């Protein structure tokens, strides 16, 4: 059974005189125990989509339509994305590592205080002593020294701060962890270490992880499936190998061509043009102004995400017979 089923979600930022269609009619599902990647250029709606999944919907962000079903173990199906319904599951069943989360550690408080605040908000009826022991054994388990609890954030490297946030997100062994750009702003070697930590957590706790990145190469070795987002839509979802071997959407092909490849000394191809303004997105397929193969129908009709094989879906008129 899918852990997460997302049906026709639209989430918009509404300001006085403009509406940004950051997530527009998105449907997909995430299976139990998988690492699912969401990739796409900056501004395509990745963070908005994962915030919506977490139920973190606050003005100016509004849910325009759609529903999300969370099939957590030992609980009735939760059929909503409203904060009220989902927030009691935060940290315990679903954890969220927001973009730039290492910066949320308060610079004038020790890491210990960060964990203490977490206990105050979500203690699950544990005494502080028991909770503190849980934190220490969890840090040990993840290979992090317990003395980091005595440090201030500025005394830790970026990679270590990110590991602290990941340790907090996994403390109560949630069934779903949503990590928004957990490796951006880190050096390549540290990026790999942080990803390995997430994999270790996934292997041991058998939870499901959604990772957002704009660099697909980051996820190529770690994700079982990847969804490609463009201008608020999911344009392609596939099993990772199939996506790299046989990308079907012209945008996915360009994204893959723009990645550096080992041993290839040719100049990298940048994706021509720039993503559209989501306050007034193009008609039809939102990629048509940048697509070399656009036909009349692409300008007029928005393509739906359709399954091409059991593991591969794409939203492109060019693939329709
Ligand atoms: N508070 C806001 N008010 C209005 N528009 C917003 C707000 N936050 C984000 N947006 C817009 O929503 C769209 C999607 O933004 P989002 O942050 O979800 O993209 P992203 O794919 O996560 O980008 P990045 O890779 O840079 O993190 C963008 O056009 C962005 O400018
Ligand atoms: Mg983002």
UniProtKB/TrEMBL annotation:
Keywords on record: ATP-binding, Hydrolase, Nucleotide-binding, Transport
GO biological process: peptide transport
Domain ABC transporter: 4-256
EC numbers for this chain: 3.6.3.-
Domain of life: Bacteria
PROSITE patterns found in the cross-reference section: ABC_TRANSPORTER_1, ABC_TRANSPORTER_2
GO molecular function, one term: ATP hydrolysis activity
Gene3D superfamilies reported for this sequence: P-loop containing nucleotide triphosphate hydrolases (3.40.50.300)
SUPFAM superfamilies cross-referenced by the UniProt entry: P-loop containing nucleoside triphosphate hydrolases (SSF52540)
Protein name as catalogued: BC-type dipeptide/oligopeptide/nickel transport system, ATPase component
Source organism of the structure: Defluviitoga tunisiensis
Protein encoded by which gene: dppD3
């Amino acid at each position: 059974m899918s852990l997460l089923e997302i049906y026709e979600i639209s989430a918009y930022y509404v300001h006085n005189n403009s509406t940004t269609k950051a997530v527009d009619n998105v449907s997909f599902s995430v299976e139990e125990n998988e690492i699912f990647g969401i990739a796409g250029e900056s501004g395509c709606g990745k963070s908005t989509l994962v915030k919506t999944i977490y139920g973190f919907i606050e003005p100016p962000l509004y849910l325009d339509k759609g529903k999300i079903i969370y099939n957590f173990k030992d609980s009735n199906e939760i059929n909503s994305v409203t904060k009220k319904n989902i927030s009691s599951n935060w940290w315990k069943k679903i954890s969220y590592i927001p973009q730039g989360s290492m910066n949320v550690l308060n610079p004038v408080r020790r890491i210990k205080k960060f964990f203490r605040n977490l206990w105050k908000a979500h203690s699950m009826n544990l005494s502080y002593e028991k909770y503190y022991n849980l934190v220490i054994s969890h840090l040990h388990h993840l290979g992090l020294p317990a003395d980091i609890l005595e440090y201030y954030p500025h005394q830790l490297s970026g990679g270590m701060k990110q590991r602290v946030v990941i340790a907090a997100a996994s403390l109560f062994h949630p069934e779903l962890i949503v990590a928004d750009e957990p490796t951006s702003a880190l050096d390549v070697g540290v990026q790999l270490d942080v990803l390995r930590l997430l994999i270790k957590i996934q292997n041991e706790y058998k939870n499901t992880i959604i990772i957002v990145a704009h660099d697909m190469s980051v996820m190529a070795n770690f994700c079982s499936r990847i969804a490609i987002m463009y201008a608020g839509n999911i344009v392609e979802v596939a099993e990772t190998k199939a996506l790299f071997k046989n990308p079907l959407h012209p945008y996915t092909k360009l994204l893959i061509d723009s990645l550096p490849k080992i041993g290839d000394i040719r100049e990298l191809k940048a994706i021509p043009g720039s993503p559209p303004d989501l306050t007034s997105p193009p008609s039809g397929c939102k990629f048509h102004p940048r697509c070399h193969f656009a036909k009349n129908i692409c300008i007029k009709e928005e393509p739906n995400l359709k399954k091409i094989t059991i593991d591969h879906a794409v939203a492109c008129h060019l693939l329709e017979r």
